[in-house]
Amino acid sequence: MSNSGKKSTFTGSPQNQHPSQHNQQQHPHQQQQQPNLRPSSGDAGFFQDPPRLGNQFEEDVGLKRVLSLYLPPALLKPLHKELGLLAVAALSPQVLHWVEDAEAHPPTLESHDAFANRSDNLRTSEGWRRLAELGAHQGIVAEGYEGRYGRIGQFAKYYIFSPSSALTTCPFAMTDGAARLLSQHIPHPATSIQSFFSLNSSLSSRREAEIKRQVFYNAHFRLISRDQSARWTSGQWMTERPGGSDVSKSETVAVYSPLAPSSQMEDGTEELGPWVVDGYKFFSSATDADMTILLARTPGGGGKLSAFYAPMKLASGERNGVRIVRLKRKLGTRALPTAELELKGMRAWMIGEEGEGIKQIATVLNITRVHNAVSAISFMRRGLAIAKAYSKVRIVAKNRPLWTIPLHLRTLAHLELYQRATTHLTFFTIHLLSLSESSTTPSLPSPNASSPLHTPSTPHQLLRLLTPITKALTAKLAMSTLSECAESLGGVGYCENEEPLNIARLLRDAQVLSIWEGTTNVLITDLISSLKRTSRAGGEEQGWVPFNEFVEENLGSPATATTSRVGEVEAEVLERCKVALWEEWKEFEKILETRSKEELTAGGRVVLWTLGWVLCGVLLIIDARRDGERTAVEFARRWVLEKAGIWGALGEYGVLEGEVEKRARADCWAVFGEKLPEVKDRARL
C-alpha cells in the first residue's frame, strides 16, 4: 500500500525526518552557551613574544667577578667600559647581518679558470671578512702583546666577541700562537746577531740568520697589528692523513736548498726561505691566511719533525708552492675555510733547531688551546642568555611563566654553575699563561695585588697541567650545556633561528672544540704524561706537585682566610667546603701516587674530571671568600658539598618535597639575580 500523501508521525529516527526538520534539531552541545571559538591562521591567533638579549657584558656578573681577581681597579673601570661597548657591537644589526651572511655563504673554491689554467681562487663571504676586520680592530690578538690589559683583557674581549664572530676567532687563535712563537726567535734589539748565533758561523750563515730575524720581525709585526692594511693572519698545519693528532707519522719533508742572493723579493723587505717543503696537509683551518706555521721532517733531523714559517703567497701574488685540493664539508664552522693542501716547492724558514718541531709547536698549542676554552665558555654564556631570556617570555601550563617553574630553574641553575666554574678555570689558566710570558713581555700589566689568589711559584709547570684539563672540560661542557639550552626552547631551539638567537649554530660549532687541537683522549694522554713524567735520572717524578701547592696555599694559608666582610653563616659554609675539598684532594692524591702511568691513562677521564673539579672548587671558594656574596657562596657550596661539578653525583636526586620551594628560590637568585615570586602571584605575571 502506498504511503504517498500520508504524513508520517514517526519522529524518532533522524534519517526519516525532512531535511529542514533535521537542521532545526539541536545537538546536545548546541543547547549550551557556546564559547567564541576562532581558529588560528597565518595572521591571527597566538604569537610568541621573541626573547630579547641584553648587554652581554653588563648582565654577566660572573665574568665581572672573575676579572676583578686578576686586574687592579685602575684597569677594571676602563676595561668594563670597552667590554660594554663591544657587547653592544656584538649584538648590533650590522654585526648580526655579517654573521648570517658568513653562515649563508660558506667559502668556495674555483680551482681552474675558463681556460683550464690552475687558479685556486678561494672566495669567502663579505660577512666573514668584515668580522675578521672587527676582531682585529678590537685587538683580539694585539691586546695580548701591546695592550694595557694584557692577556686577561685580551681574552675578556675575545669572550664577548666570540659568539658573534662566525668562528673568525679560529684564525685569530693560530695568529696569536704564531706571533708568540716568532717572538721567541727574534733577538732583542740590544742583542747583537753575532751573540744570538754562533760566532763560528760562516759569513753566509750569519747573513741568512740576519735575514731570518728580519723576516720573523716583519711577520710578527703584521700578526699583532690592528691596521687593516698591514695585519696578517696565520694558519697552523700539522694534521696529515696517516696520523690525525699523532704528528709522529708526518709525511711532509723539508730539504735545505737556499736560493742565490739575487732572489730577494720585489718589495725588498723579505727573502724566500732556504728550505723547500713538499707534502700533503689533510686539515688546514684558516686557508685564507697570509702565512702558516707547519711541521715537516728533515734529512738531518734524525727522523724528527722540525717547525717552519712560510708565507702563503709570493710578492707576485702567486701561491708559495701551495695547491688547494678541496674544501672540507663540515658539521659546523661553515664560514671557516678548511681545506686539504698539497705542498710542492713551498719556500720556508726553519723555526728553532732542526728536529725540535714538537717543542716549538707546543708554544702554539698552549695558546690555541686557551683560545679554544674561551670560545667554549663564551658559547655557553650566549646559550644560557638565550635560554634565560626565553624563559622570561614563555607561558606554560596553568598560565605560569616558565622561569618560575622549579624544575626549569633547577636545570638553568645547574648550567649556570658549570659556566661560572669553567669561566674561573679558563681565566686562571690565562693568568698562568700571562705569568709564564712575563719574563719576555715586561710591558704587561701587573696582577691585582689585593687579590686573595695565591700565585704559584712555578706558573709554567702548573700551566702545563692545566692547559689540557681546561681545554677538555670546557669543550665537553659547552656541548652538553648548549644541548640543554636548545632543548629548553623546545622545537624552536632545534631550528636555525635568526641571530642572535641561533643556538643551533652555536651547538654545531661547539662540536669542533673537543676535536680541534687535540681530542679529549689525546689531551688525557698529555696530562698523564705530565703527572707521571720521567726524571732525568730515569726515575718517576710527581708532576702534580705544583697542583698540590696551589690547592694547599689557596685553601689553607692565612692570606686566603675568609674576610671580615663575610657573615658567620657564609663563613661556616665556606669552611665546610674547604675541609671537604681538601679531604677529597688528598684521597685522590693517593691514587696518583700509587697507580702506574698505564693505570691512570686507562682511567684517564676520571683523572681529568677529578682534577678539574678540585681546581674549580678552589677557585669558587676563593671567589666567595672575598665578600661572601650570596650566589658565589651558594655556587661554592653546590660544587663542593653537593659535588654538582661531577656528573650524576649528589644534588641530582632526592630533594624532599618540603625543600622544593626553598631550592627554587635559591635557583632563581643564582640564575636571574632576583627573588622568585610567591606561588599565589606566579600565574598573574
TrEMBL record:
Residue span(s) of domain Acyl-CoA dehydrogenase/oxidase C-terminal: 355-527
Keyword set, alphabetical order: FAD, Flavoprotein, Oxidoreductase
Keyword Transport: no
Region described as Disordered: 1-53
Cited Pfam families: Acyl-CoA_dh_1, Acyl-CoA_dh_M, AidB_N
Domain Acyl-CoA oxidase/dehydrogenase middle positions: 236-345
InterPro entries: Acyl-CoA_dehydrogenase-like (IPR052904), Acyl-CoA_Oxase/DH_mid-dom (IPR006091), AcylCo_DH-like_C (IPR036250), AcylCo_DH/oxidase_C (IPR009075), AcylCoA_DH/oxidase_NM_dom_sf (IPR009100), AidB_N (IPR041504)
Keyword Acetylation: no
GO molecular function terms attached to this record: acyl-CoA dehydrogenase activity
Names of required cofactors: FAD
Domain Adaptive response protein AidB N-terminal: 55-185
Biased composition (Polar residues): 1-12
Signal peptide region: none
Family statement: Belongs to the acyl-CoA dehydrogenase family.
PANTHER family attached to this UniProt entry: ACD11 DEHYDROGENASE, ACYL-COA DEHYDROGENASE
Protein name, UniProt field: Acyl-CoA dehydrogenase/oxidase C-terminal
